[in-house]
Amino acid sequence: MTSAGRFAPSPSGELHVGNLRTAILAWLFARSTGRRFLMRVEDLDRARAGAEAEQLRDLAAIGITWDGGVVRQTDRGAHYAAAIARLAAADLTYECFCTRREIQEAPSAPHAPQGAYPGTCRNLTAAEREAKRAARPAAVRLRSTVTEATVQDLLRGSYTGVVDDFVLRRNDGVIAYNLAVVVDDAEQGIDQVVRGDDLLPSTPRQAYLALLLNMPVPEYAHVPLVLNADGARLAKRDGAVTLADLTAEGVPPEDVRDVLLVSLGLPTGPLEHALAVFDPAALPKQPWVWPGLGGAGA
Ligand code: GLU
Prior knowledge:
This protein has 298 residues and is of the alpha/beta class.
């Protein structure tokens, strides 16, 4: 299998300019290193009807191309189940019956990092589990043997973060993002993951899980987010921030693409122009503030 990069949007709504900027970067990283570029729709949770088509249309409109068909996580349930079964066979999973509230209110284990699952259900007896199953369906958690892990990031360097007993399958049966992303990246031959740096804190968990599953750990590049004028992460409420909104304001997709390229210090025009000079080391390291385009933005 040849190596590949990818973009993996969640079809919960339209992409905004921050997502499009990340997609451009993922495409540039992959294409500039001779990788294939794959499109994966992460539709396990909160998918909105019609959003996938809008997202793919917008990506194409700014010049993003991808190889092969679109892969949807909802078609890959058997692969996730197989991965969980392998972990379970190695005694690396356990059932958890905690509600969100119980987790919040539980005293945290001594030395446990902030936000880590306190381990309430880790050592239940068979009889305790039996009793709890009658009251509530179980989530499946990883029985982690470490509390932190370190990953190497092309842009951020060495990064160490929490690895707790994170959820692999929610108690409503939905597969957790952290499991799906690891299984998909490995099985699709994705060896380069470029995405927003809001996901950097999840990355040690994912790299550790890949090791447990005997899957390769990809190369990572976490790229700075796009912020609004208040310094908060860009969102729909920040005015015209989707291609559809901007088009309605008289700003065509090519202009949006060019503004994003300029923000990255790259030449405008078709993405191939940027590709010809792309140098990860020259990328801006700071978040970029969306300047607003069109009537509603400025
Ligand atoms: N689907 C995730 C998102 O849209 C991205 C996952 C990833 O790139 O690993 O935030």
